[in-house]
Structures are given as C-alpha cells and as structure tokens.
Amino acid sequence: MSAFARRDGVLNAESVSLTDIAAEFGTPCWVYSRHAIEAALDEFQRELTGFDGLVCYAVKANSNLAVLNLLARRGAGFDIVSEGELRRVLNAGADPRQIVFSGVGKTAREMELALDIGILCFNVESAAELERLDGVAAAMGKTAPISLRVNPDVDAKTHPYISTGLKENKFGVAYEDARALYRQAANLANIEISGIDCHIGSQLLDAAPFAEALDKVLALVDQLAADGIVLDHIDLGGGLGIRYRDEDAPNVKSYLQPLLQKLAGRQLRILLEPGRRLVGNAGLLLTRVEYLKPGEIKNFAIVDAAMNDLARPALYGSWHDIVPVVPRAGLPMPWEIVGPVCESGDFLGHGRELALAAGDLLAIMSAGAYGMVMSSNYNSRVRAAEVMVDGAQTHLVRRRETVEDLYALECRLP
Asked: Which domains, ranges and CATH numbers included, belong to the chain?
C-alpha cells in the first residue's frame, strides 16, 4: 500500500481522502501514514536479522506520542537528547533499557532521571560531561553506562547546519582525544564503559562517508582493546537521507550491508539511530490556499500554513514537493507558495508550476520529519493538528491548539 497516492484523481493518505481529512480536522494539518512508518522500521530490522542489533529511533525527528508508541510496540529503542524527550518516550511505552541519551548539554537533573530509570547508555560528548556524570552517579550510588561519541572528522557532504562529524562541529569528542578519554573513563569508579558512538550528520545521500567513519571507529576499537578496554556495542548513529525532490537516496540494504560486513565476526551489539528515514516520507502538511496575488514580477499563493508550521524551507532553503490534492484544469503558472507570517522569509516553495484557485488544498510532501517538532507560535499562531491514518481509519493524535492555550502559562501584571 502506498502511503500517499491518488484515487479517482484525489490525493489520499492510505485509504482516506485528504479532502475528507481537511473537512474533519481543518487546515493546516499534519497527516502521517502508520503503514509507511512501520514499513520503514521493518526495513532496518530486516537487515539486522542475524545480528545483535537495536534500532533506536531519533526522537528529535518527530516526537508525537502516537509515533513513539507505534515504534515502541514494534520493538524499537530510542535516541533522546533532553528530559522532555526522555519523559515522552517513557509515556509512550519505551523500555528504559532501550534508550540512549545523546546531546552535548546534558544537565545534572537529566542525568539523575536517566540513571534512576536505568537507561541503556549515555552517549558522552566531552570530558567535562564525563566528569559531571561520574559525580552525579557517585552521589546516587549508581554506575553510569557510557559510550563516547567520537567525532571522526569525516565530511558527510550535507547541509552545513546538519553536518555533525567534522572538527569544526560542536558534537562529539575529537578522534585524536578519544583514546585518552576512554582511559580516563576506565579509572572512574562510577562509570562503566559500554560502547562507542559515531554520528556524522543528517540527510546523507552517499553511503561512502558512513563506511569511512566506521573504518576510523573500528581502528579505535582495536586500539582500546589493546589497552584492555573491551566494548559491548557500537552505535553507528543515523543520518540516512530520503528523497525530497530528485535525490538518489540509498536504500537501507545498500547502506547497511557494507557496514555489517565490516562488523561481521566482532562481538559487538549494533545500535542504529535513524530518524528522518523512518518518518520523513511518512508525513505531509495539508494546507489551503487563502488568496491568490498575481504580480508583475512574482505570483503569490498565500496559504494558511506558514514558516512557523514548517520551518525547513526558511531555515535551510529546503525543497518540499507541493502538489494539489485535487488537480485543477487550466494552464499552470509559477507561484510563490507563502504563508501569512510577517517575514519575507515566510515561504514554503518558490516558483511552483501549478494551476490554482482560492480554496484549493495543497499537500506539502515529505514533511514527517523536522516538521511539527520545529514549529512555533510566532505571530501568536496556533500549532496545527496531527492526524495518523491507519488504512481507512483516522486518529487525531494531537488536537489543534487554541489561542487560549498560547497564553495559558502567562499572566498580566498586578
């Protein structure tokens, strides 16, 4: 079953017309396909057959409780970066022993909570963090399982804002420093060395950087073994890209098999942290055209979604396919698809060739990752509803905010 396909000319989410979803839940509205999320997870889990492996979904990509619960029920673990994400996955039914805690700025409070529930591992990103974690664990009378996130200085060939594996990036421990820091960790009473972690970036379309990074990490693993530090697991991170426009995104098999071949025979549990790849093409943003504003230089189609809903185009210059839910007869013309927010950077697509009329529904595709999670209330705009489609059923998995929600935590001066 295709996640989003046309039936009698109308774009559907699984077996439900997007026109029906707009009528029931309004616009703008996030729409997710349960089938697409399950199929994406299955693809990873299938390739890990025969290995001791765990897929830890990167929660930052889409943290809706329904998405998390769906993945937890199918055996996924989780990669989290904050107390909020930790509490979300626990609420969604995650097994604490399948949670890895990443991120460069873990607070003592976050460490305490994670130690208290017994997570699988902390991905430590600095010497200072290692020292703090040892102190927190000592105060609690616990031992903290850790891996070091090693920065292999490999160019992921992606957007600079989402590249994480170069020396100039804030993430991880420098490759040259990692061996010494592992030795330091081995001498800490409240630290248990469990593994090694590497994540080089997001939206990667070339499998070669993954292999290059793994070669460097495995060389370090062998050096550590010579030091008497034997690891239990290797965390290969995530970052595998998806097709937004015309990209040639690797399939999971072609990406994983060369890595798994390098790991064959090693007694290492394999952790993976995909995010975008599991949910990116499983979601879209449904929006309605409010006004058409033709001009001498540009033609503007003003829709009810905006940069506060989907920040990626304004933030990264990202391209999302924008298609009519019901195609309209007529000569297409180039339109700037823009929102109502008071910023010139409030656009969702430039120069899209479409035949449009006010009231038309548009689907902004490949919006399941880094969509709702990055949305805001700028201009006091309420955040959109989220809907999960399961075959012919729809489930409202997050109601649309109200204006009253926006100032519920605020108060006037006395």
From this structure: 4-32+280-406 (2.40.37.10), 35-278 (3.20.20.10)
Q: Which residues of 165-197 are buried (b: 16+ CB within 10 A; e: fewer)?
A: bbeebebbbebeebbebbeebeebebbebbbbb
Answer whether residue 83 shows pLDDT above 80. yes
Report, as residue numbers or ranges, the catalytic residues.
342
The tens digit of pLDDT for each residue in 96-142 reads 999 999 999 999 999 999 999 999 999 999 999 999 999 999 999 99
Please, are residues 90 and 64 in contact by the beta-carbon 8 Å criterion?
Answer: no
pLDDT tens, residue by residue, 187-225:
999 999 999 999 887 788 877 888 888 999 999 999 999
Task: Identify the CA nearest to 25 among candidates 9, 34, 13.
Answer: 13
Task: Give the separation between CA 204 and CA 168, rounded to whole angstroms.
Answer: 18
